[in-house]
Amino acid sequence: MKKFFSVADVDSLEAIVQEALSLKANPNAYEHLGKHKMLGLVFLNPSLRTRLSTQKAAMNLGMNVMVMNMDKDGWALETRDGVVMNGTTVEHIREAAAVMGEYCDILGLRSFPSLKDKEADYTEDLFNKFVKYCGVPVVSLESATRHPLQSLTDLITITEHKKVAKPKVVLAWAPHVKALPQAVPNSFAEWMSKAQEQGLVDFTIAHPAGYELAEEFTQGATITHNLEEALQGADFVYVKNWSSYKEYGQVYPVSDNWMLDNQKLTLTNDAKVMHCLPVRRDLELSSEILDGPNSLVIKEASNRVWAAQVVLKRMLENLNK
Amino acid sequence: MKKFFSVADVDSLEAIVQEALSLKANPNAYEHLGKHKMLGLVFLNPSLRTRLSTQKAAMNLGMNVMVMNMDKDGWALETRDGVVMNGTTVEHIREAAAVMGEYCDILGLRSFPSLKDKEADYTEDLFNKFVKYCGVPVVSLESATRHPLQSLTDLITITEHKKVAKPKVVLAWAPHVKALPQAVPNSFAEWMSKAQEQGLVDFTIAHPAGYELAEEFTQGATITHNLEEALQGADFVYVKNWSSYKEYGQVYPVSDNWMLDNQKLTLTNDAKVMHCLPVRRDLELSSEILDGPNSLVIKEASNRVWAAQVVLKRMLENLNK
Amino acid sequence: MKKFFSVADVDSLEAIVQEALSLKANPNAYEHLGKHKMLGLVFLNPSLRTRLSTQKAAMNLGMNVMVMNMDKDGWALETRDGVVMNGTTVEHIREAAAVMGEYCDILGLRSFPSLKDKEADYTEDLFNKFVKYCGVPVVSLESATRHPLQSLTDLITITEHKKVAKPKVVLAWAPHVKALPQAVPNSFAEWMSKAQEQGLVDFTIAHPAGYELAEEFTQGATITHNLEEALQGADFVYVKNWSSYKEYGQVYPVSDNWMLDNQKLTLTNDAKVMHCLPVRRDLELSSEILDGPNSLVIKEASNRVWAAQVVLKRMLENLNK
């Protein structure tokens, strides 16, 4: 594996999940694989779970880790070519990425979308340039349009907790006070769509009108504007807010009640409830669910380690070839 | 040891000091104890000595360390239950602590008091909730009301430098330009009170009227408003500013001269002078003392490593059981 | 080696370059040298290349590393003696440096000049006090007047890429939008002057009138205000902006075109082009050069690791004696 950016970078979902679960059973089994190897984690935006879980995964593999919080250093990167750099950007991504690639064997990059320039965000301009210029394998720590370590984590968590061979999985939009990226739901949708193709899940998306995700992520999914209908017989409900893709980055008023609570949960097949965190309690998701027996959110966050570790392991194995 | 929050978490003070001194004599003797163990250090407020000394202690024990500076990330935590999180807090401590507990074997937490809400500060609401929800052993890196790693350090330092079996130790209030927490003096007072009970020291507190500490910390101590009187025959003087407990967080004007200098030191038994640092020179404590032979402040700061290391060692031994 | 601050801390330039190149050929050969040793990296100003390369060098040597970003913590240091600290500085460098020296076997310090107080900057007040009070070996990570790890890197890079025994090296001033320190050009000039003395290079400096560097750094160099003249027959062109030393920290308007491009490069002996980075594209240096075959900037940045590693190796060897 030379890049981990989307579900397209993985062949068999079942195989990678099983490999992750074997790492979970034996976290230090491959600690010699990363000896003398350096992982660089570059954050253009803040991170808690992603930073800690990826750092821990790397340490389990015996790697050294260096963290660069570029958001707080005011280290503004230029990404455009052909501009005279006489403004506020202090370094071009061509040099910045290339230099980091000299010091690190593998790099991770987190970069949120602008939510203003749809084309720049959806062509993944920054992430792609970083990959192009750094010259080493890159793992996405969440990019403008995807959060693949989260989605792999989610599939691992679903696999661990499913009670039927092919569970019904529902991605359910939820309210928020801010305009959030589409990265997590896009990514979850493309992973679940592929999991559905591979016979692993049955996948439905529920959101209010106006919150349609870009079609490239939702191939094969059942899509509805009726939350109650979607919840019927659900085995897993994945709760997440996102802003509009069509009216890019906008937030439409939603009059219906889209917050999942115990009453709505009675419509499901005693569904397990998931969320990528951080979660706004009693706005996105009710406290009664988060504190009750159906919540998987902490176990899900815990599994972030094994998703990161299986990706790093595959990259290290590829390096050593 | 599952928690290190106050002197109540330690039975024999003499035993823990001797164990710390044996680690000082042989820093890497237990480096296999922390192998494959992760320490997470969470800072809601800035730190220099605490971060570096605890990191070093963990590395001496062979642990991996991850540092989270949440003060600078604007990662505002919600601690109240039952509120709709539609404001500025981005994550509830229930989730944040639980997730960190999944990635770490031991956690450290630093969180200063508000100095505005006495009840929230003195019930140690934040620290206690963090302990409750994270599910792993927690070491206080200074909380609203206590700084136990500092106090253990101070006892180690007194033990190393005492010339008599039961030295006279004086906690002496000193001036400052800001309103400071009571955590360091509270903690020093409760550790010295217990040390006095165990026959290790004779303990006196001197402060201007209005600067009384909460009584729960000062049981058994001699308390005076007369600095000169307190200094008579002192073997150690521990200099520290704090704001008022009664008029919570307030600073009363003090007309008398409470800054320790060489002249005042002549009243003592050639006392050694201590301070937890950072110290405001010639405001809290005179330069002539800090630069002279009676100052222990650097040796004291150095001992922070062994205080942290003995606490982590005891927690690791408990984990491995 | 107990201090690495200027070219005066190195005897034979050829010997240290060869030692660095042997580390490059075998990065982990000395990984037992740093076992149980702690490197502390103190940044009073931001850093990318220096932090990452020095951290990697230390890890290659088996050291532990702790990073302190004091610029962002608002941990304002007092450096003057005899002042009552009742203002904004929270700790005196006497205590801060001494404490860090207790926790670390070797320290690195980055501190930029004020560009306002020429005397304080050029007496290296802060750096010298830090060295004096910390009590352990100190490596400069760039100080007010010098950046020696960069200059050693540059000499390594020139040695690797030279096609003649004694190449012509030109330091060429370039435009910028901000007033930059003289540290990099000062340091490069003093290293190249010494390299010239030792028969390794032929050294020329080109800058507009008014941009003269302090004479202590440029002994033996040919100095001209004519860029085209300087470029004649050059084997290496080192491009860098700096502000005025005479009118300290000022920026004079420069009407001539001082940006290096491919056309100017035709005057040279197919010169390799160097820059310490970050570089402002098409302001300091043309994109066509940066993206073309004559640029060494990425290889140069990569060599930062070996410069740091040879310095740390020599300090460790001295410690262990």
From TrEMBL, chains A, B, C:
| Residues reported to bind carbamoyl phosphate | S47, L48, R49, T50, W75, R110, H147, P148, L149, Q150, C276, L277, R304
Q: Could you tell me what reaction this enzyme catalyses?
A: N(2)-succinyl-L-ornithine + carbamoyl phosphate = N(2)-succinyl-L-citrulline + phosphate + H(+)
Q: Where is the Aspartate/ornithine carbamoyltransferase Asp/Orn-binding domain?
A: 202-313
Class of this enzyme: transferase
State whether keyword Signal applies. no
Q: Any idea which UniProt keywords this protein has?
A: Amino-acid biosynthesis, Arginine biosynthesis, Transferase
Binding positions for N(2)-succinyl-L-ornithine per the UniProt entry? E142, H176, K240, R280
- Please report the stretch or stretches of sequence annotated as the Aspartate/ornithine carbamoyltransferase carbamoyl-P binding domain: 3-160
Q: In which pathway does it act?
A: Amino-acid biosynthesis; L-arginine biosynthesis
What EC number(s) does its UniProt record assign? 2.1.3.11
Q: Which family does it belong to?
A: Belongs to the aspartate/ornithine carbamoyltransferase superfamily. SOTCase family.
Summarizing the function annotation, the protein's role is: Catalyzes the transfer of the carbamoyl group from carbamoyl phosphate to the delta-amino group of N(2)-succinyl-L-ornithine to produce N(2)-succinyl-L-citrulline. Is essential for arginine biosynthesis.
Subunit relationships: Homotrimer.
From the Swiss-Prot or TrEMBL record, give the protein name.
Answer: N-succinylornithine carbamoyltransferase
Q: Which organism is it from?
A: Sphingobacterium thermophilum
